[in-house]
Specification:
single chain, mainly beta, 8-stranded antiparallel barrel, elongated, 60% strand, 1 helix
């Protein structure tokens, strides 16, 4: 019994040593185009930018865990807003661009195939820094990322990501929402964000 436990302990020890010998860490920078909108608002996508840093923890040749911190500008353009005009004493509708700036903390799983093709996915906690909303429901957001990328031997990489928020971020009774009477989730307004950009990881050796 003791010999069996000792053998298992030795195997685990050498497995951990082998994994640690393969683990590498590479810091990097990322940035690019941010295209975002707010679901169920019948508004336009807002083009802006994102930039940030990351640490690539390569656990194997094919898999890396990548914590990221990113400043990303999101929102939506041409959103209809209901308001009361005291001069004419009538309800009116005005169109405005909604701007939401987030500090996004992500934990990305990265799988590499072939000559550098990558599949990326993982959760994000988005902390809102500024916004021009008049009525809001949540200041922060939880989101999930899914994307594809290609990394060159030099460390330069290109990726496209889709990020979907889960929290209702604004009061759709104040911001016109034509789908409220037609869809079950018409008043459930969440962030939708596409990111197209480049990144570069530094070799620390």
């Amino acid at each position: 019994m003791y010999k069996k436990k000792a053998a298992i302990a030795i195997l685990l020890f050498f497995a951990i040593v082998n994994i640690q010998a393969q683990v590498t860490f590479k810091p990097g920078l990322r940035g690019g185009l941010s295209l975002s909108t707010i679901s169920e608002m019948h508004a336009d996508y807002r083009p802006d930018f994102y930039f940030g840093g990351f640490g690539e923890i390569n656990l194997t040749k094919k898999y890396a865990l990548q914590p990221e911190i990113t400043y990303v500008k999101q929102g939506s353009n041409n959103v209809a807003r209901n308001y009361y005009d005291p001069v004419s004493e009538t309800n009116k509708v005005a169109y405005q661009d909604l701007i939401l700036d987030y500090l996004s903390l992500s934990m990305i799983n990265k799988f590499t195939f072939g000559q550098g093709f990558q599949v990326l996915f993982g959760p994000s906690l988005d902390v809102r820094l500024t916004d021009n909303l008049v009525r809001r429901k949540n200041y922060n957001d939880f989101a999930f990322n899914l994307g594809l990328g290609y990394r060159m031997p030099s460390g330069l990489a290109f990726d496209v990501r889709f990020k979907k928020g889960f929290l209702d971020i604004l009061d759709s009774d104040y911001y016109t929402n034509d789908s409220n009477n037609h869809y079950l989730f018409g008043d459930y307004n969440t962030n939708i964000n596409f990111q197209i950009g480049v990144s570069y990881s530094f070799d620390t050796k």
